[in-house]
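Section 5.1 Outputs to date
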Amino acid sequence: MKTRRAKIYNSPRRIPQLDKILDSFVKDNPEYKKLGEITELLSLWPKVVGKKLAKISRVIKFESSVLMIKVNSSIWRNEFYHIEDEIKNKYNAKLGYHKISKILFY
């Protein structure tokens, strides 16, 4: 009886992350530049405010250099108002250019 050789499989291919796919899509299609800006703002939010604050808030809109953030409670919204300038400065530093002029919390 013949013995079968063990099959050697290639290592599984990694599926690219969604943000990398969107970045390449936006670079190939300049008319989607606004989409690229929004995805960049979304991906930077947890890095700018930290994991704890990112869990209780999220970016909902970016329009006319105003960033709009949804916060879970009014108590946290008040705390965010106190650190608005710090968040703005961190965002603009990470973006590399002055992009956000105001942040509104809802």
